[in-house]
Design brief:
Elements (H helix, E strand, L loop, with lengths): L1 H5 L7 H30 L5 H30 L3 H25 L7 H14 L5 H7 L12 E3 L10 H8 L6 E6 L2 E6 L5 H21 L9 H27 L1 H6 L4 E2 L9 E2 L2
Parallel strand pairs: 1-3
Antiparallel strand pairs: 2-3, 4-5
Helix pairs in contact: 5-8, 8-9
Keywords: Membrane, Transmembrane, Transmembrane helix
Family: Belongs to the RUS1 family.
InterPro entries: RUS_fam, UVB_sens_C, UVB_sens_RUS_dom
């Protein structure tokens, strides 16, 4: 919109500026459509997505109509007055961003992404308390990524974890689950076995988040290299995470508060190697 306002003041580049603004609008439209779909699924408590979509479309139509009426009033006032035009543009833009921020903050998602899962696990490890969905959502950042400096790759090939027989032996140590974890190139890698159940996948994701938190607290991302001493320390953390998950996973997953507060599906965000939906 800002580019379209400025376009008349650059006649030589008018077409280019307007076309570029149209491209940006299309990108925003795609991102907004994807976000809207996720929120519609979240709001369809009774599998009534069609009803929710219809009401959303009706509200959007009314808002657009109100915007049209306001624009009919403002256009005579701002014509040939670029200063007032820019002032009103920035005022309405700030109001729009503030309204969107409050709307995002008001949403309480009852499924886990990486940030919410990490927040809940950190609190549980700290005092054995499971955060409620409103508490977890309130702690999730909006503008900046969650402070997870170690990315997670779920569903990698075996060779990305065990590049030698020694690595495979270390990956199997203290591990009785049908998946393997390892640290490679600053990433927590998870290799799932063919017999891994959905519960195993959820546990693997939880353990990967715990392991990532361990690595974040002990090293910066630049320090997670491939030196033998560092690799030995990484495998020790992997073994420690196996023991920790053996102690906390079943009480955490089967806890009455967890069952009542959160839906057990875990929605994995784009920060992982692939987007997946895990349901129990």
């Amino acid at each position: 919109m800002f580019m379209e306002i400025l376009a008349p003041y650059f006649p030589a580049c008018f077409t280019f500026i307007v076309c570029t603004a149209g491209i940006f609008k299309s990108i925003v439209g795609v991102a907004g459509g994807a976000t809207r779909a996720a929120l519609t699924v979240h709001q369809a408590r009774r599998d009534n997505m069609a009803d929710i979509s219809a009401k959303d479309g009706s509200q959007e139509t009314l808002v657009n109509l109100a915007g049209l009426l306001v624009s009919l009033i403002l256009i005579p006032l701002v014509t040939d007055n670029p200063v007032l035009t820019l002032c009103l543009f920035f005022l309405f833009t700030v109001l729009h961003l503030f309204a969107n921020y409050k709307a995002v903050r008001s949403v309480v998602m009852e499924t886990f992404n990486e940030a919410r899962l990490s927040i809940v696990l950190q609190q549980y490890l700290k005092d054995k308390r499971i955060l409620s969905p409103p508490e977890a959502n309130q702690r999730e950042p909006v503008f900046f990524e969650f402070g997870q400096t170690v990315p997670i790759k779920l569903g990698v090939r075996l060779q990305e974890i065990a590049q030698s027989p020694e690595d495979l032996e270390l990956a199997l140590k203290e591990n009785s689950m049908p998946y393997l974890l390892g640290v490679r190139n600053g990433c927590v890698c998870v290799c799932l076995g063919p017999e891994a159940s959905v519960s195993d996948e959820i546990r693997a994701m939880c353990q990967a988040v715990v392991l990532g938190n361990m690595l974040s607290s002990s090293n910066s991302r630049e320090a997670t290299g491939a030196a033998p001493k560092q690799q030995k320390g990484h495998w020790e953390m992997v073994h420690k995470s196996h023991k920790l998950m053996d102690a906390i996973f079943n009480p955490l997953l089967k806890g009455e508060h967890m069952q009542n507060c959160f839906n057990l599906p875990i929605i994995l965000s784009d920060s992982f190697s692939g987007s997946m939906i895990l349901e129990m």
